[in-house]
Specification:
alpha/beta; single chain; Rossmann fold; globular; six-stranded mixed β-sheet
Length: 161
């Protein structure tokens, strides 16, 4: 289990997805994008806008049952992408590399890019924006909710004047 946590805000995610798109521009054109669901959907949408790409396909891979790692299974194939030639795969994070390896086997000719990569999985990517320590659990904006936090002074009975 991860020891540290890193929270990614919507603003940071958007900046990193635009940086990913900028780094991908020299590799254009792409026939389309394959978003690895669910985490790759939002980065793929941002990159698609920035790269002017209209064809967005998805691959849905399930590797966890509750919190236990299992065998990866495709529950939705990216049929339009064929073997991946000319396509760009986008995910939010490559962690252990299990999902990335599985997706690459199905789309061997695609270019694989993600926002964040941990050491155990980064070799499976062609491009990533930020390396994250292996013991860090990344909390994405869709994993968190803003909560009201009372002011520090409200914990005191009296306020110094």
């Amino acid at each position: 289990m991860a020891v540290h946590y890193a929270t990614v805000t919507w603003e940071q995610l958007h900046r990193d997805a635009r940086a990913l798109a900028a780094a991908l521009m020299p590799r254009m054109p792409f026939k389309g994008i394959v978003a690895v669901t669910r985490g790759g959907l939002i980065p793929a949408a941002i990159a698609a806008r920035e790269l002017g790409c209209r064809l967005i396909e998805t691959i849905s891979v399930v590797t966890y049952d509750e919190e236990e790692m299992g065998q990866p299974q495709i529950i939705k194939s990216p049929d339009a992408a064929g073997d991946g030639e000319g396509f760009l795969i986008i995910d939010d994070l490559v962690d252990s590399g299990v999902t990335a390896r599985f997706v690459r086997e199905r789309l061997p000719k695609a270019y694989f890019a993600c926002l964040y990569a941990k050491p155990a999985g980064k070799a499976l990517t062609d491009l990533f924006i930020t390396e994250v320590p292996q013991d860090t659990w990344v909390l994405f904006p869709w994993d968190t909710a803003p909560l009201f936090v009372p002011p520090l002074v409200s914990n005191k009975k009296e306020c110094a004047e």
